Amino acid sequence: MDAYDSGSDVSREAEAEGAAAREPQAPPAPEAVPDASPDSPAPSDAPAPEPRTGVAALSPRYQIGAAVALAVVAVAVCVHLGMVFLHVAPSNTVTKTHGEAIDDWIYPEFEQNWKLFAPNPLQQNIAVQVRAQIRTADGGSRTTGWYDLSAQDGRAIDGNLVPSHTQQNELRRAWDFFTASHDSDNRAVGERGSLSETYLRRIVVLRLERGGANGADGVVERVQIRSRTLNVRPPEWTTEKVSSQPVFRVLPWWSVLPGEAEGDAK
């Protein structure tokens, strides 16, 4: 073999080695992992299960109790909303058939002063006033002047961004409840007449007690309530004429039951 042939052989071997180096190499085969048997412990790096929260964390017995309680609350809310809707809705077959049950549910706590599809804005200013007969500590008796309870509520509401429901509606709705269940001679015309009297009397007695009308050691024995109604002045551009004179409706004296000022009377 001459030098030329030796050089050719070396060149061919170098080219073969370079081609082999350029070919992609297969990745190494993964190591065999033994099959995990059912009794083998779980890998230490496995994520722990998240703890249960809320109702899911309770035992089955308490889960059932919570579900029952939620169902009862849902049913009560649906019944209440349905009763309020029927109360403010126009007269229909349901209200004519079950009107007494609807009224028993609504009055007096949930009464609404609006009618669905028929707004009825007030066109009068009605003030509820009260005076009391006080038994003094020495056994004597005195009669107070008239307290304008509606004016007191108005002062509490004026400038208050979030006035309470009591300040806005308690006294006004109590008076509406009374007038709706009594005739012009202050005689009850329905089964709720006595209830409306008790409700109104307890409100005014509590207001008198909190306002200190009975003095240091005095006791409120009787109260008398009256309303002062004044028409709202019509706008200047209308030709409507209304009376500007107030109209009073005076109720008879009512005896205060023992403990009524503290809310204990039934």
Show the helix and strand layout.
Layout: H1 3-22, H2 60-88, H3 93-106, E1 124-135, E2 141-143, E3 147-148, H4 149-157, H5 165-180, H6 193-210, E4 219-231, E5 247-250, E6 254-255
Antiparallel strand pairs: 1-2, 1-3, 1-4, 4-5, 4-6
Helix pairs in contact: 2-3, 4-5, 5-6
Describe the structure.
The chain is an alpha+beta fold and 266 residues long. 40% of the residues lie in helices and 14% in strands. Strands 1, 2, 3, 4, 5 and 6 form a six-stranded antiparallel β-sheet that branches. Helix 4 packs antiparallel against helix 5 and helix 5 packs antiparallel against helix 6. The radius of gyration is 42 Å and the shape is elongated.
Number of helices: 6
What structural category characterises the helix and strand content? alpha+beta
In oligomeric terms, what are we looking at? single chain
Q: Report, as a whole number of angstroms, the end-to-end distance.
A: 133 Å
- Poorly predicted segments: none
Largest sheet: 6 strands, antiparallel
Shape: elongated
- The proportion of residues forming helix, as a percent range, comes to 25-40%
According to DSSP, the number of beta strands is 6
Taken in chain order, the helices and strands follow as HHHEEEHHHEEE
Radius of gyration, whole Å? 42 Å
**Mean pLDDT, as a whole number?**
81
Beta-strand content = 5-15%
In brief, what are we looking at here?
This protein has 266 residues and is α+β, with helices and mostly antiparallel strands.
